[in-house]
Predict the 3D structure of the following.
Amino acid sequence: MTQYMGLHETLEVHELLTFKNLCVTKAFTMSGLVQDPRLKTILTNDVESGRRFITQLQELITDRSQDNE
């Protein structure tokens, strides 16, 4: 049996995707400006984890069906 996400769910995932893109962009930009190595590491790690999260959200949007066993 195939189950599809509802329109409101798709819109909520899209809203999360937009927000996370903004967060990653800001963290990436700030990582180039900071001088403290620890803060730079934190921002770099945030960018990497944010990109993974964005990929997962994009998969949810592009593959709207999920197998329900």
The first strand starts at residue 2 and ends at 4. The mean pLDDT is 88. The radius of gyration is 16 Å. Residues 19 and 55 are 13 Å apart (CA to CA).
